Task: inverse folding
């Protein structure tokens, strides 16, 4: 029974009993109204766009149909209808099977048809924007010297204590390397045990949108940017490093099936 039918039934019920001077049973009325809202809200599910380069929205469920918009990676949409019109797409050598879904952008007005193979029921992970001024203040106060660890401590709760501890050879009371996990599946590792200096950070994240991650890296870099040779993106946006080969901070992004890794080395 659809929403329209339930609504008509409610209106008919109220009109009939009023016309016949019969007391209306409000329990029945409220039950029908509840069913209307339940069928409207619970009957529609939401999904998230998993295509890293965005997902094309078409006017009709056909690859030759007019393109009416594009949904960014991670956008949440409401599934209006599963058309059962099948479609297979080959992407990077892999065959992806699905069908055409009619969708409505949850926040926005875009409505049309998309390929279901690039939708997921799992919410897409995105890093919170770094607060550059707060992080700079923490560096100035020397609370903790590593920017990414400061950022994680400010925005995500740690899961357990630090582990895989190593200590400086010349001072066994001070930690020079450790790993710590944070909520939402983040894993952070730091290594700065070499006497010659330099710091290495490895960050494991849930699968992350590339544009969001690039903006995040640029924000982290801005916190302690004192390089004469500013960083630029290289190698298809997988590396963010000095334009020339100079001392500075070198960032590298590596994608795995279910995770995104960020490597950082600062030094000579």
Result:
């Amino acid at each position: 029974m659809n929403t329209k039918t339930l609504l008509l039934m409610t209106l008919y019920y109220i009109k009939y009993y009023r016309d016949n001077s019969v007391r209306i049973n409000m329990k029945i009325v409220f039950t029908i109204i509840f069913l209307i809202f339940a069928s409207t809200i619970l009957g529609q599910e939401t999904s998230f766009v998993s295509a890293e380069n965005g997902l094309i929205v078409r006017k009709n469920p056909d690859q030759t149909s007019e393109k009416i918009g594009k949904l960014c990676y991670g956008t949440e949409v409401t599934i209006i209808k599963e058309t059962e019109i099948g479609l297979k797409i080959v992407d990077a050598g892999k065959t992806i099977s699905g069908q055409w879904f009619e969708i409505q952008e949850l926040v926005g007005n875009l409505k049309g048809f998309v390929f279901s193979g690039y939708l997921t029921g799992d919410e897409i992970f995105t890093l919170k924007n770094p607060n550059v001024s707060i992080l700079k203040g923490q560096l100035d106060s020397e609370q903790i010297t590593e920017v990414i660890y400061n950022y994680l401590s400010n925005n995500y709760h740690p899961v357990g204590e630090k582990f895989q501890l190593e200590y400086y050879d010349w001072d066994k009371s001070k930690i020079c390397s450790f790993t710590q996990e944070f909520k939402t599946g983040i894993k952070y590792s730091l290594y700065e045990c070499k006497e010659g200096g330099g710091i290495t950070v490895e960050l494991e994240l849930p699968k992350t949108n590339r544009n969001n991650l690039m903006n995040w890296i640029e924000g982290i870099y801005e916190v302690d940017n004192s390089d004469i040779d500013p960083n630029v993106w290289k190698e298809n946006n997988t590396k963010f490093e000095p334009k020339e080969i100079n001392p500075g901070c070198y960032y590298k992004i590596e994608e795995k099936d279910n995770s995104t890794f960020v490597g950082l080395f600062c030094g000579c």
In short: Confidence is low (pLDDT under 50) at residues 36-42. The two ends are 70 Å apart (CA to CA). Helices lie at 3-19, 26-41, 132-141, 147-155, 210-223. Residues 132-267 form one domain.
